[in-house]
């Protein structure tokens, strides 16, 4: 633990300690569950009181950068992946834009007969076959999102498609359909047995559910997507200008 503060600086000790601890968090040394340095060790190393160290740590806990568990200690939680509601992209584009390597844990493309609700949303006849795409995706450590998509019958995919490129790029390349609008609805829920198994969380864990309806320039619905995100790994950010 190579850390230090300036005891002669006008900057309060707890603020300097916050900066020191942020640097430790960003170092990546504690990303795999290793325990963060103890208050007493930081206090001794910096020659400040434990209360001052605790004040700095409490600030970082409130920001979600550190997590405390009684009887265990302080750890660095997995970073949440954020996406803004002011813009929309495919999952692949989001991960590529953030420089996060991802993988497909499950990809399943099948045909399904549209029920009354699906037929109404896609403006097609009930019982007409549509493509259903199921994907479980995440980073190199674990899955954190489960997607189910249904597509307008005009969307037909190559039988050898691996879906490792941005979905909307694939649709445009293979069908010449350009998607320009997304209507989204967000809901909080708890993982049932199926979601818990797919996303490798405990049953009852918090899940962010997002329903997305994607349309072409003419307003025709092309994709209906349901996404189930692990709440400990993903967050939606809203920016509003007055």
UniProtKB/TrEMBL annotation:
Residues 11-79 form the HTH gntR-type domain. It comes from the Bacteria. InterPro entries: Bact_HTH_transcr_reg, Chorismate_lyase_/UTRA_dom_sf, Tscrpt_reg_HTH_GntR, UTRA, WH-like_DNA-bd_sf, WH_DNA-bd_sf. Keywords: DNA-binding, Transcription, Transcription regulation. One of its GO terms (biological process) is negative regulation of DNA-templated transcription. One of its GO terms (molecular function) is DNA binding. This is GntR family transcriptional regulator. It comes from Flammeovirga pectinis. The lineage of its organism: Bacteria, Pseudomonadati, Bacteroidota, Cytophagia, Cytophagales.
